[in-house]
Amino acid sequence: MSAPPIYALIPKQIERLSLHRFEWLRFPEPLEERFEQDISTYRTQRLWIETLIAIAFFNLFLFANHFLLHTISWKTLLVRSCLITPVALMVNVTMRVKPVPVYRELSIALAACWMCYTHLYLELGPYAMGPTYAQVGVIIVVLFTNVVMRLQFPYALAASVAMMAGDLIFLYRNNFEGSAEKIFAAMLTLCAISMTVMANYTLGRDERMGYLQRLRGEIQSAQLTVSNEELMRISTLDSLTGLANRHSFTNQYMVLWKQALTSRAPLSAVVIDIDNFKAVNDLCGHLYGDQVIKRVALLLQQALRGKQDFAARFGGEEFVVLLPGASPEVGMLVAERIRKLIEVAGTPALEEVPELPSVWATVSCGVATCWPTHTDKPDGLLEAADKALYEAKDSGRNCVCYGEAVMTYTRPHLVPTPPSIGQAPGVGHQPFA
């Protein structure tokens, strides 16, 4: 499996963010799009919950000041309840619809600035609790925006600068403090903003670094899974013919045996051997012998009934076919089709060889069928098909023979009889001797 395009970007981005210097917290476009797609649901859910909690605490302290300390005028109460809270709730509700990233971050930043500006405006009035309370309110909003909500760094930085500017305007217009107190208050707010902005950057960088490492691990794990599956597939195939190998045949044979046992359906096996292959291999060369094997394997697959039939290379020049649900008659018909196809088209092209005027590839087939029971041994079916193959060889090759499987229970309600087309040499070119 080829790696996705973003996979090539991950190592460079990890290296970039690992450097102990300021790096802009944004990935190249394909990777940034994937990042937003993966974190969007979690981030909007978290922002929704945290905003709701902040609104609840804001109103709790508001009413506590008014009813317990009697330090808030009705004007202040109405402004905060009718202006700040509705705006915050409106932003909170929109988090539930998974807004686009720009709106998600910008709406939180604007709501935080709106809260900060309204708070500073009210602290200029005659019922203000004092400049110290005003600075504490600004610092709490900044802390909430940059560290708790963890806005993305550009939005956190812009909101912090805007709130610092609002605080400086407030201090300039405040007539109840001297210059020294104003400078100290501004330095206090600036220090809080600087530390929270740095914390916000670090949290954002760590979030992106963790995402890159997880994404790299997921992609590598997916690639490893596909590679393992490919290796498993290759390990079950014969490298020369592309058919299933002996190990794969053994596993599939037990699967089909159990299925036949459960459904009480017949299972037929056809064992196929290329006639006189050793002589062909010795006289025409191993490369030509390989071509013969590959041609036989290809024709064998074409002769099967469908995907339910299973063909494998059993070893050397020998093949085996499993036919689930096939009666003896059907098994013989499939075997005869295999024999005829190979007789007609099983010989690859060969350059003229003086001592070999004609070479023709044929096969002999042994067929057996059984209805498995719990007392039967699976090897019995293959042994019967193998014996039928030897009978076909003794009968002159290039023919199909049927062998009766020695089973506890062979065929329900019927006495098995050999199919009529068995044990008869095929008509056509005689096998090379």
Q: How many E-type strands?
A: 6
Helical segment count: 12
What is the helix content?
55-70%
The succession of helices and strands, N to C, reads HHHHHHHHEHHEEHEHEE
Features:
Alpha-Beta Plaits, six-stranded mixed sheet, alpha+beta, 6 strands, 61% helix, disordered C terminus, 12 helices, 433 residues, 2 domains
Textual characterization of the structure:
61% of the residues lie in helices and 8% in strands. It has helices at 10-18, 29-69, 74-94, 101-122, 131-148, 153-173, 179-235, 246-263, 277-284, 286-302, 328-345, 379-394; strands at 267-274, 310-315, 318-324, 363-370, 399-402, 424-425. It is built from 12 helices and 6 strands. The chain has 2 domains: 5-222, no CATH class; 246-425, Reverse transcriptase/Diguanylate cyclase domain (Alpha-Beta Plaits, 2-Layer Sandwich), CATH 3.30.70. The protein is rod-shaped and about 120 Å long. Residues 409-433 have low confidence and may be disordered. It is an alpha+beta fold and 433 residues long.
